[in-house]
Design goal:
The structure is a homotetramer of 437-residue chains. Chain A is 46% helix and 16% strand. By secondary structure, chain A is an alpha/beta fold. Chains A, B, C, D: Its cofactor is NAD(+).
């Protein structure tokens, strides 16, 4: 790899693009990128134009020797790529709003990566991602696919099961957890290793090694998630301390959906009534961001992007790409093929866990067997994800209904079926696998 | 074993006692019982008197050489027993009514063996059962404990984990499933083997062997639970056919709580409003039964008992005892130590599965790995049961809250905690492990 | 199954045939056999004639309504069969003699089912058995294949992996072990259950249940194999008591090859020098038997057959067939698909273990995890068997050499390679898979 | 850890000491060692004096700020140590000579870490190492034990099972394998990752990642061990190419003992006749080395030490210590607790595998399930090691005999027992656990 790198970002018209561009600029000294291709679809043409021009101005201002290309021709972009990142959203924010609104309208949690909304997003996204993989197998078979399209774990599993492309699924959650542990211990995050294992958005901390000792008991005793340590899209609801203390491991912020389901639902229903869905809020924020991006005098990532939520995502992507390229043996928590890392799950599913990253890719660190307090829950969560992948790939209505039945956020029965039917109908144009002639 | 057998029935004042007495009378030619001891506690003294005298009349009328003893002195009864059956109910029907009423009053499913009610029943029952085991270890260490006190699987697990007494947990559910399959196939149940595996009240049919072939596909296609094939206490609600067809295995009647949760809940809330809880209905039925039992001219099990629900329970107990005594190699579905029979669960938990029964006890038949459609759900159900056993034995509030958090019928969070607090308070007198000074 | 049964015995010209005929005659009241077809190949024509005519005289003398057919046309025999038994020997006794002689000539153990000789026998036999399966799939797809062709475990595994025919592999070893335990306990074998698990000719007793208790410690303490409890073909060599006592389980007679390898070898080399190989001894015995069989006044199995070794084999076959036909739930130790019964081995291999037998076939009883004293040895033995099956099916020289390398009775290296080369050459005519043009 | 480090080397009188001293000197810029304590026993007093003085001269000549202490008082040395390395040899080289000579005299392979010799060495060494651990638990409970006393895997397992001290077991074999792969690929070893898994001296290469691709097939095709890539103590014997090619993984040099047993034995018996045992050769080399060490003008590791065999051992130890101290995330192949890294083995045994090394210790990378060609062999090898640990800790004769019975290099039976008896007798003074009054 001594030529300059070609990087392709699919969903290049995303409001996050300035972040990833900034990440590449900051790492240019160790990551010699020659070309960045931003790809989008017709529906995203205008956004691609706006954010792509900002990207060009950023690169130019940085004075690095790198070309930014904007295109709707995905295959042209993929030809001979070294790394492909995906930040696409099938159906744009309007689809997300439906994913949130339909479950909420039936009194269920409405969230874009969890519950019924997560299923709908998976059903729309997986066929597109697998299409991209088909193109990559032909045009850049040795490139790495760095996925941060949600639901990241389910999407990664689809690639693992149905493509030969090397894929790593990213999430920024592990970084929030590291920051919280650092604060509890009162030390810099370089001083300890937080070992993590589970599924995407369903991740547990199992060990905290500091100076050769496992200080987990100390950390657990002082565990707290306040607004500083949780993603913006998760409501600020107190955990049940007795329940959490009994876990023996550190839950992740998203676990609130599962450990305080009734409270999150109450909060969401209230918010929904008052402010509409989170997707609608985001849509307004995005609109403002794009207004900013249009400014021809803007040559850097605007501060406001950080309030968008989802920060550190692009940071993680750039870090990962650099760790692979520079063979860094970096420890990072990503989504990969299980292969025995969680012994109670099948080999060929996606899990999220601390991996060592280098030119060889991402190899999970050895994990203890999951404690009995969480092992069963991880198994049933993986089951619903497996059903979601099956439904997305085959268009099986039974598999989709099974997925919702297994999902702990969706009460099974008539309600589940009705929500599923409405979601399928609402996204009909993106779900050809369910509506074949 | 050439002496005559001594059988002890704990909870002997139960309205079911005539059924088990009938079972012993019918098997007297192969099961030479010399003594039957009916034991109860002070609170059950009157019922014991009534039903015990009926038992005496039944035995006398049958003309068999067997003594029936009524006693409140458990240790005297247990001395040198061969088989001990348990059909006790800690706190009597009033406790059951609370188990149903408290969850329902918070909008949750209220049922005596599932969900929050099942937890409360386990917390009350396990200490009593383990006390009995302590006595047995001293007074009849080689006797078999035949448990049909609910929640049967959880209670059996407590005995497996915390006693050396040989224990088999019974349930009559497998017989309903056999009858349904027999009807679907249009043959007598002796013509096929329905292989079953799972947990108590959470049991799946995995194979139907007829004439050396597995006819499962044919059975699945015609699967139906109507009122003829489900226990009386389960509401008559349609299954979601697409979901069930996708399972690849036969669910049990109790699975309706898990596969159509919202519909069962709606039905329960409606019934609760109209008729009160199931426990209240049963209480009335019981009252009538005991009025009948008082009749000094009654010398046999009255027909009305069959409408009580729970039929075939005593039948199963007698069948099991005879299979052990006569070394029958009978195939029967019971609750036993897992020991690898379900590979995804720990060795030392209780499972329910088809076993071969003989003088050696109950040995599970080899099972396939559970299909991915149900494996995760079985794991999380076993997790909640494990937490329930831990809570019952240690009095850990955290374990009890964890149990409810994992239970798919209870939404986690404030509601779960509140229901738990109310249940603990309501049953305070039976839960010394939670209210130590 | 209300028609009369058709039974086919392949290798019908074997000297054992009178035993299986006697078994069928004795069970005629419960096993309504209408036709017995004895099949052999051209090389066995004369023997088939002799023993087949004896069979006819036996059936006639018994006065049962059953036809005995003799044929070289296997396909005609298989048409619509209910049970097919295999007792064939590819290459007849001359091949066996080579299997023993070639290893011995290099200073290795020479035995027909273990070590290098066992590999050669597997390589010759498996292609023939799979050919029979192909015919059965076409002509009698629902028939049971009851294999007692050695090496029985390896042959059964080949059928499991490469055919859809239902197959049970038999061995008479478990019966020797039962007799020994009965003698140690001083009770009839109906009084206890000896639970067995392992591989064919590599079987361990793990539990001895008597009157509901596991009396294994008592049995182990008094363990002894003397000439009464071991097959005739195993030398009478003392076990190392300290080593056996440390096992914690009961070894089988064939384990002497593995636990006292040097002593067995010494004994074999001595015998070989004095008397030639075991195969040569057997050949002489067989010659005498066939002389007896020719006697037209003989109408029953001659006593001398019992000295032949291998007694109880046909007994086991008849018992198995009757247990299946009559749905007996008989506990019997046979070779079947593992399917998790030994957890440390793959699902799709053959193991030998106590099964319950009925119309559904043979289902293994649940086993404990193997103790660490024997688990590794069972794993490496299964590995060599897996390599043997692979070599037999594909003709891979590497797999065959791997098999010998893994086999504990064959020192790896040049010697193994030389023995393999000589065996392949010696049996060239029966090994087309290794000598394709 | 901002104070200067205290390092203790037990068996400090070893001829290898100059190598480890050189390693510390070379890393002084990153590894601020303040004190090195060389500890030995009375029998090693003279050697300790000689090599210890050389060590002092080396440190002085290097001009680093570090004290070298020589002592026979182990407890004084261990007080507050940061790292403890062990390179002791219980019974010195004379014991090794017996370990080689006794098996050879019975026609068995005689080697210090494999077969019967390896067992004897384990039995002598483990009690001493566990004594050291007892001291460490009291005097420096947070120190790392870096073991390179052979048999390294078995010794490490004893520590894992019977002590709370953090222990990493070293071997230099993985470096030979890396050099061989580098030569086959024609690239520097920094260009690829050779992933290794197995047991100490029984290690397999499972993946060779170069530039993100697994190039294992290419490496396997060109596999060769010639004198450049194998330890000096392993004879130069050709591998069986067909057998090795069929493995699908890369064996380690020591695998020759297992894959060409008869050839190694022949070679050893020849060498033994001609030159005596390897131990005797080494003894002569050591004598010469100590003569050199006495030279007061020698201030550096003499070249001749590299011919001693066992080179790179100390290199590995220094590298490991620095990786821990500097939190390097170094990938290195060491012996650690299995914990699921090899799924077919128990959690609490020692395995050797590629780990990531940092302040948290050594965490294994995730491994594939072992291929069926080697999985069984690894299991039986681990079984013998488990028995060896049990025998060493408990003094059980049965466990020791079991260990030899399972070991593929020792034919079971009378010979094994005789060799065991002679070894126990010969080492009687070092085996108090076997000779308690």
């Amino acid at each position: 790899m001594n030529k300059k790198l070609k990087i392709v970002t699919i969903g290049g018209g995303s409001s996050y693009t300035p972040e990833i561009i900034e990440g590449f600029i900051q790492r240019y000294h160790e990551l010699p990128i020659g070309e960045i291709w931003l790809v989008d679809v017709e529906a995203g043409r205008e956004k691609l134009e706006i954010v792509g021009n900002l990207a060009k101005r950023m690169v130019e201002a940085a004075g690095i020797d790198c070309q930014v290309h904007l295109t709707l021709d995905r295959r042209a972009a993929l030809k001979d790529a070294d790394f492909v990142t995906t930040q696409l959203r099938v159906g744009q924010l309007d689809a997300r709003i439906k994913d949130e609104r339909i479950p909420l309208s039936h009194g269920l949690i409405g969230q874009e990566t969890n519950g019924a909304g997560g299923l709908a997003k998976a059903l729309r996204t997986i066929p597109v991602i697998l299409d991209i993989c088909r193109d990559m197998e032909e045009l850049c078979p040795d490139a790495w696919l760095v996925n941060f399209t949600n639901p990241s774990g389910i999407v990664t599993e689809a690639v693992i099961k149905h493509s030969r492309i090397k894929c790593v699924g990213l999430c920024n959650l592990s970084q929030s957890m590291q920051r919280m542990v650092a604060e509890i211990l009162g030390v810099d995050k370089s001083r300890f290793l937080l070992q993590l294992v589970g599924l995407n958005h369903f991740l547990y901390g199992t060990h905290v090694y500091m100076d050769g000792k496992d200080v987990m008991p100390e950390v657990l005793k002082n565990l707290k998630y306040d607004s500083a340590h949780k993603p913006k899209n998760i409501p600020d609801i107190p955990w049940l301390q007795e329940q959490i203390q009994h876990l023996g491991v550190i839950p992740c912020p998203y676990h609130q959906y599962y450990y305080t389901t009734s409270d999150v639902l109450e909060n969401q229903l209230h918010d929904y009534k008052e402010h509409g869905t989170r997707g609608e809020v985001v849509k307004a924020v995005e609109h403002e961001l794009f207004e900013l991006y249009k400014n021809p005098d803007l040559h850097e990532k605007p501060k406001q992007l950080e309030q968008r939520g989802g920060a550190y995502y692009s940071e993680a992507a750039c870090e990962l790409i650099s760790a692979i390229y520079n063979d860094k043996n970096l420890l990072m928590t990503v989504n990969v093929r299980n292969n025995g890392a969680i012994r109670s799950l099948p080999d060929n599913v996606a899990i999220e866990t601390t991996c060592v990253i280098g030119r060889y890719g991402a190899i999970p660190l050895n994990n203890d067997a999951l404690p009995s307090t969480v092992s069963g829950l991880v198994s049933v969560m993986k089951s619903w994800e497996e059903m979601a992948v099956e439904a997305a790939v085959t268009g099986s209505y039974g598999a989709a209904l099974q997925a919702l039945t297994l999902n702990p956020l969706v009460p099974s029965g008539k309600v589940a079926k009705q929500v599923l039917d409405e979601l399928l109908e609402a996204h009909r144009e993106y779900l050809p696998q369910f509506f074949r002639a």
